[in-house]
């Protein structure tokens, strides 16, 4: 496509949009999916794949909503492969929040994870969530035993039917001298059938008990492996009652004793594999001051907000201990911009731009563009329409604030007032209180006059917001390519790329910035 293809989108003189079709086509052309700059996730996983053939374990959706479950499942698999590729076992999760990703990485993949969040309430929430999460493992253990028992009963019943058929055949034909009942050694005679001989019954009982103990031992090993991963101060060592399966074997006794000792030891030494920490870190922070046993590690961030996504990459490039990074950003509207207010603050660290190329051009997006970048085109495309009414409420409120109160700028936010309001009047009054503006002299009739004045323009507002949605991927491209370009400018990076990690309908901020340092 040459430069003139989209030259007729806007009027040359008025700069107004004159071709919606061309506008949509241009937006699609400059989206990440069309530019060919992304590395497919399958290619990355294939390149990182070592001897490990994957792992099975807990299901995330039992503890998280569908969106979070999808994100954690996909990202944790990738992080595990990166860690294995680099030969490291330590992970630092920046902006870890409630610890969804951190706890899953530690439990599912046996990685030592430090979840760092600047919010003390988030860290406390992570501790509490972790504590509750551990309680489920007793349920998993019971469910696992019940499943094993059920499977054994089903197999036993199947074998009983087969044996009855075989025994009828034996009854019809006299046994030859060289014939043997060993062919029926699979008959489980623990009360299921009395057809087989007593000797066979005894042998089968021994086989069944041995199989039962073997299965129980396998389950114990799996549960013990899980317990070894979990923070033990939140885990009660499971009961040693073993049903009617006889005495525990010496090996299992030793394993359980070891698990008990580990639980007790970790209560004093806190040898956990997931540590939620409260700290605000930058590229200048000495990580060893926060993490005493710091070693070579991977830094990850799942939906790091605003500038934190940019700072994650700066920390990665600045710290020699961090060998790889996998960062998915969000909340572009909260990014700080170096050239937005035309203020000369060379010492300030900005969220955008990061790369020298855009710095040299003095590039600026502006808040409106960054707000647009947060919209979800793929969701709108599958019918999840924009909240037109709430957007209309907010737009009319803006007019009221400017015309009645003379306010054009405020540090305060209306937030999610729409969902808590019963009507437009209720919405306006609640919003004004949040903005600390006196609503006592504003009658209901005046508020409704504004509503009626602009009601006929609701369709116009919806069309405008749809255009913003179409443009959203182009602005996101600019922000993500800036981050990738920043990594390409560093000398110590072996490989860096953009990877589409998530289903954009489930998780609109679906692109990860990934990089590996030179060894």
From TrEMBL:
Gene3D superfamilies on file: Vaccinia Virus protein VP39 (3.40.50.150)
UniProt source species: Grus americana (Whooping crane)
Protein name: MET25 protein
Domain of life where this protein originates: Eukaryota
Pfam families on file: Methyltransf_32
Domain Methyltransferase: start-end pairs: 67-338
InterPro entries: Methyltranfer_dom, METTL25, SAM-dependent_MTases_sf
């Amino acid at each position: 496509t040459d430069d003139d293809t989209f030259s007729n989108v806007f009027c040359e003189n008025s700069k107004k949009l004159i071709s919606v079709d061309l506008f949509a086509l241009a937006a699609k052309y400059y989206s990440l999916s069309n530019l060919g700059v992304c590395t497919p996730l399958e290619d990355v996983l294939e390149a990182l794949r070592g001897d490990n053939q994957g792992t099975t374990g807990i299901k995330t959706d039992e503890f998280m909503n569908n969106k979070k479950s999808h994100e954690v499942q996909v990202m944790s698999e990738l992080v595990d492969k990166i860690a294995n590729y680099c030969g490291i076992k330590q992970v630092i999760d920046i902006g870890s929040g409630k610890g969804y990703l951190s706890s899953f990485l530690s439990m599912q993949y046996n990685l030592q994870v430090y979840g760092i969040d600047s919010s003390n309430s988030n860290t406390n929430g992570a501790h509490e969530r972790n504590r509750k999460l551990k309680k489920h493992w007793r349920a998993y253990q019971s469910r696992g035993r019940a499943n094993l028992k059920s499977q054994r009963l089903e197999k036993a019943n199947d074998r009983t039917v087969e044996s009855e058929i075989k025994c009828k055949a034996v009854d019809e034909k006299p046994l030859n001298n060289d014939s043997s009942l060993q062919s029926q050694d699979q008959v489980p005679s623990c009360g299921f059938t009395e057809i087989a001989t007593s000797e066979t019954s005894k042998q089968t009982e021994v086989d069944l008990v041995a199989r039962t103990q073997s299965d129980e031992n396998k389950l114990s090993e799996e549960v013990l492996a899980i317990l070894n991963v979990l923070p033990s101060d939140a885990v009660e060592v499971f009961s040693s009652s073993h049903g009617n399966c006889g005495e525990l074997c010496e090996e299992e006794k030793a394993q359980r004793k070891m698990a008990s000792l580990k639980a007790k030891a970790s209560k004093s030494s806190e040898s956990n594999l997931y540590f939620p920490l409260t700290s605000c870190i930058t590229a200048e922070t000495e990580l060893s001051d926060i993490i005493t046993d710091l070693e070579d590690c991977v830094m990850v961030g799942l939906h790091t907000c605003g500038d934190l996504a940019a700072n994650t990459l700066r920390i990665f490039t600045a710290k020699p201990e961090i060998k790889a990074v996998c960062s998915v950003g969000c909340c572009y509207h909260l990014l700080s911009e170096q050239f937005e207010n035309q203020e000369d603050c060379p010492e300030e660290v900005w969220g955008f731009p990061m790369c020298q190329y855009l710095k040299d051009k003095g590039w600026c997006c502006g808040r409106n563009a960054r707000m647009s970048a947060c919209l979800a085109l793929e969701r709108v495309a599958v019918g999840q329409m924009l909240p037109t009414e709430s957007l209309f409420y907010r737009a009319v409120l803006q007019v009221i604030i400017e015309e009645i109160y003379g306010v054009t700028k405020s540090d305060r936010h209306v937030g999610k007032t729409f969902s808590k309001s019963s009507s437009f009047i209720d919405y306006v009054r609640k919003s004004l209180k949040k903005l600390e503006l006196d609503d006592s002299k504003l009658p209901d009739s005046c508020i409704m006059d504004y509503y009626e004045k602009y009601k006929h323009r609701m369709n116009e507002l919806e069309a405008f917001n749809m255009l913003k949605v179409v443009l959203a991927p182009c602005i996101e491209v600019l922000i993500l390519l800036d981050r990738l370009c920043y990594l390409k400018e560093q000398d110590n990076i072996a490989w860096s790329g953009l990877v589409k990690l998530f289903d954009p309908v489930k998780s609109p901020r679906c692109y990860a910035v990934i990089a590996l340092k030179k060894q």
